[in-house]
Amino acid sequence: MKIKIKSGRTEAIAELKDTKTAKAIYEKLPIESTASIWGQEVYFEIPVNLEAEKDAKEIVSKGDIAYWPAGRCFCIFFGKTPASQTKDQKPLPR
Is 24 part of any domain? Predict the structure, then answer.
């Protein structure tokens, strides 16, 4: 599933994996929210309230997108976050 993410005049296409979480997000589109920045991560609250999937990963890479269940947020990673312990990024704790 491909989605378009827009902020002002900037647009990006992202591909969602075929998961329960991705389907739930896709079904809620379009979503409008106010973005925040945490290190080199952009995140914003979305109207989805799900637990982390069993195979959800904790360490992410530049360019990854993810759902953060604890904050009900959609996250876009473009570098390290304050929680990063390696060259990879790490989202907020579950």
Answer: yes
In angstroms, the CA 1 to CA 28 distance is 13
Q: 32: domain CATH number?
A: 2.40.100.20
69 SS3 class = helix
Q: Which residue has the tokens 């579950």?
A: 94
Give the number of domains in the chain: 1
- Please check whether residue 60 is in contact with residue 66, taking contact to mean a CB–CB distance below 8 angstroms: yes
Distance, in Å, from the CA atom of 94 to the CA atom of 76, rounded to the nearest integer, reads 16
Q: What is the mean pLDDT of each run of 10 residues along the chain (94 residues)?
A: 95 96 98 96 97 91 94 95 74 55
Number of H helices, E strands in the chain: 1, 6
In-domain check, residue 90: no
| Alpha-carbon distances, residue 21 vs 27, 38, 40 (angstroms) | 10, 22, 23
